[in-house]
Structure formats: C-alpha cells, structure tokens
Specification:
mainly alpha, 65% helix, elongated
C-alpha cells in the first residue's frame, strides 16, 4: 500500500509542477510556441478547456492532502469524500469538452499540438 500511495503522490506532484497549457493571453511570451492565428477568438479556450482550473485545483487542494496520505492513508479517503462535488464538476466539464477539443486539435496537424500525442498515449 505504501508503494501505491507514494506513486499517487509522485504522479500528482508531476502534474502540479508541470506547466499548464498556454492560452492566447500568453502567446506572445518569448520562448513559447505561438498559438495559430485561426485559434484565437475562442477556439483556444475550447482546446484547453478548464485545464488551468484543474491544475490550480490540484496545486491548492489535492496535492497537499495527497502528500499527507503517505503518513495517514485515511486522508486519501477523506479527500475524495470532501472534494467529490468539485472533482465531479471540474473533471465532468473536462470530459464534456474533450470531443470538441480533439476535433479542433485534429484540424491542426502541426507542432503546436504535439502535446495531443502525449494525451492519447497516456489514455491507452
């Protein structure tokens, strides 16, 4: 059980430390890949959906509790019980948006969406 809990902690730490996708508002930051112009005006919000919201939720609410579960495994159960509605709302919204996002990504077969390959491999 300890090994599983440590794996859960490491996975959440990786997700929480990863940069979140860049949206149109940050497309002009030097060193960032520029968003294709035909995605501006709303399609970028569809592609990225609520990823930033999920990321921030994990950093603020989920990760601190998951890190505590190594010492006290009952924290994990309480986390999911207490955050059930928020998790359902955030991930439900993500799942509802995913088909639209994948459609837009499939229309842009370039390096900007190379990250989509990661998500497809991860889902396998």
């Amino acid at each position: 059980m300890d090994g599983l809990l440590i794996s859960i902690v490491k996975l959440n730490q990786s997700f929480s430390c990863a940069s979140t996708p860049q949206t149109a508002s940050s497309s002009s930051v030097p060193g960032r890949v520029k968003i294709p112009s035909d995605l501006l005006g709303g399609k970028d919000r569809i592609v990225f959906g609520n990823i930033r919201d999920i990321h921030d939720f994990h950093v603020r609410s989920v990760l601190p509790e998951i890190e505590r579960c190594v010492e006290d495994p009952s924290v994990l159960r309480r986390l999911f019980e207490n955050k059930r509605d928020l998790l359902k709302k955030k991930y439900g919204r993500f799942c509802l948006n995913k088909p639209k996002s994948e459609y837009i990504i499939s229309q842009h077969n370039d390096k900007y969406f190379a990250v989509s390959a990661f998500f497809k491999e991860d889902a396998s």
